[in-house]
Amino acid sequence: MLTGLSDLDDVDAVNAADVARDLHSVARAGAQVRSVAEAQREGVLETLAELHPRSVVIICEVGSAWRAAQFVIAAYAAAVDVPLVCTATLPSWVGPLDVVVVCGDDAAAPGLPDAIARAGRRSAEVVIGCPVEGPVREVATGAMVDLSPRVMVPRRFRFVGHVAVLLAVLAALRRVRVSEPLPDLDALADALDIEVARNSPANETFRNDAKLLATRLAQRPVVWAGDGPPAVGIAACAAAVAATTAGVVSTPVALGEAVETFSGLQMRGGAAAAADSIFYDPQIDGPAAASPQLVAICTTDREWVVRQQVSALTDVYVMTSAGGDDPETPASASGGGWASELILLESRIEMASVYLELMGAQG
Predict the structure, then answer these.
(1) pLDDT value of residue 359
(2) Residue 270 pLDDT
(3) pLDDT number for residue 190
(4) Under a CB-based contact definition with an 8 Å cutoff, are residues 312 and 263 in contact?
(5) CB contact set of 308 (below 8 Å; sequence gap of 6+)
(6) Is pLDDT at 65 greater than 90 in this prediction?
(7) What pLDDT score was predicted for residue 276?
(8) How far is C-alpha 327 from the geometric centre of its chain's CA atoms?
(9) What CATH superfamily classification does 29-182 receive?
(10) Cα–Cα distance between 74 and 178 in angstroms, integer?
């Protein structure tokens, strides 16, 4: 709901404007992860402990589940000793040697119940990461691993929950070597809670990274640039959540592409140069077209390198998980390193998108 809120530091006005309780939904990112960690403790995933599958096949509908799968594959495919495959429908070769993870937000999505039923008939190990209701309930059996959502939020804020399900599955495959450390889900949940607390409406804009980002996004069109494949995945999530939450259209690209493109725009002058020209008259020529701004997404250990890459560009915001009053990132406690940092950035972007929605910005 676009309210045209003008002062993000007016806590009462922000809370009153958030009639859909989107801020509350985003704040439950840690709860989504913690619910998957609780399922781990309950032993839900123990049936996977002795398996060394031929592959892990992720079946998901297009949306937050698909983006979560792409992020996990980009982050861990090279570090896991079994192939990770993401597809919308069950491949014909899937059989008893495979683990099938079905993720999504809509139990009625045609591909999900069909994949569960066929994978079950082929004796594959099935993990259900979508709501067990409707058509999915009809085909689910007690032999399947139930990681269905326990914390319900709008589907546009479900990215973190889907990532937690996929990370839990990889961690449960104890006979499969994973050379890259996986985040501890309890610690990741705590880190997400810290990130949300930093960006809550009670914190003023000058020390609230989500409000600062929202203010920046409201000014000019934005291009999200990711430093490496996992960060490009977060850039895609950023573009999606900004569009579905605040109605702001933006573009995700790889950082190298963005640097090349923006360098060319600067060399040609662009809209900013036209506005600065002594011959430019807004009364005659009309308002100047807003040139896009670049938001570079990276981890703290890559920040210096990224800043060197964009040093020749103007109006670039380099975004890392460090922020607020504490320059250290809370992701360090989760044991997942750079992957956890990127997950925290997605939570911050979701919060910024809600603030942008409340400001009434439309790009």
Answers:
(1) 87
(2) 53
(3) 96
(4) yes
(5) none
(6) yes
(7) 47
(8) 22
(9) Glucose-6-phosphate isomerase like protein; domain 1 (3.40.50.10490)
(10) 14
Report d(CA 343, CA 190) in Å as an integer.
12
Q: How far is CA 166 from CA 56, 214, 337, in A?
A: 10, 30, 17
The two beta strands, 84-87 and 98-103, are unpaired
Boundaries of CATH 3.40.50.10490 in the chain?
Answer: 11-24+200-279+287-359, 29-182
The model carries a pTM of 0.90
Answer yes or no: is pLDDT of 37 > 60: yes
Beta bridge partners of 223: 251, 294
Residue 235 has pLDDT above 70, yes or no: yes
- Average pLDDT of span 137-155: 94
* Cα distance between the two ends of the chain: 15
How far apart CA 26 and CA 24 sit, in angstroms, is 6
Q: What is the pLDDT of residues 1-12, one digit of tens each?
A: 344 566 899 999
* pLDDT, position 335: 56
- Could you tell me the pLDDT band of residue 263, with boundaries at 50, 70 and 90? confident
Helix 29-41 vs helix 185-198: crossing angle, to nearest 10: 170
CB atoms < 10 A from the CB of 16, how many? Answer: 12
Q: For 86-116, b where at least 16 C-beta lie within 10 A, e where not — what string?
A: beeebeeebeeebbbbbbbbbbebebbbbbb
The 8-class DSSP code of residue 337 comes to: T
Q: What is the CATH number of domain 11-24+200-279+287-359?
A: 3.40.50.10490
| Spatial distance between the Cα atoms of 338 and 324, rounded to a whole number of angstroms | 19
- Closest CA relative to residue 170, chosen from 123, 111, 114, 129: 129
* Length of the chain as a residue count: 363
pLDDT at 290: 63
Q: In the chain, which ranges are continuous DSSP H helix?
A: 11-17, 22-26, 29-41, 64-76, 111-121, 134-139, 159-172, 185-198, 209-217, 229-246, 255-268, 270-276, 282-285, 303-309, 338-359
User: For residue 361, what are its two tokens?
Assistant: 């910005």
